[in-house]
Every structure is written in structure tokens, then in C-alpha cells.
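Dear colleagues,

As part of the handover before I leave the project, I'm documenting each prediction I ran so the next person doesn't have to rerun anything. This entry is a single chain, and its sequence is reproduced below.
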Amino acid sequence: MRKVRIFIISVGILAGAVIGIAQTSEPIPVPMQAATPALMADAKQQAEMAENIKQLQELKAQNDEILKQQQAALDALDELQKEADQMRIYSKRG
């Protein structure tokens, strides 16, 4: 009975020591080679983002030009509509 108690107490002390050592050990440093691909991927992602922004700005400029052309066409159609209305009015008088 005494040997069992000593064994249990010894195992408890050993387990406590192992846990204490595990908590105080320093983490393994990450080598810089592992961080380099991440930095390269980030730089690549930023370059892609800049290219996408440039493309969007070009599309916006094209859309603005199309909108100007459409507005000019609408203005011309409005003028034609006004002239057609005036011709109807004058044709009814005469």
C-alpha cells in the first residue's frame, strides 16, 4: 500500500514537472525562408490589385465617354421631337 502511494505521488510530481517545463520552453523560431514566400505573395497581390484598379479606371473613362455620346443622342432626339411637335402645330393651322 505504501509503494502505491509513493508511486502515485511520484507520477503526480513528474507530471507537474513535465507540464511546468513545457509551459516555460521557448517556441521554435520560424525561419525567414518561410516568411519570404508570404511577402512575395503579398507583393504579387498588391501588383494585381493595382492592375485591377487601373483597368477599372480605364473602364470608367470608357463608360463616361459612352454616357456622353448617349446624352448627345438623347438631346438630338429631344430636338427632333420638339421640331416634330412644331410641325404638327403649324400643319393644323394651315
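DSSP finds two helices and no strands in the chain. Residues 16 and 78 are 89 Å apart (CA to CA).

All the best with the project,
I.
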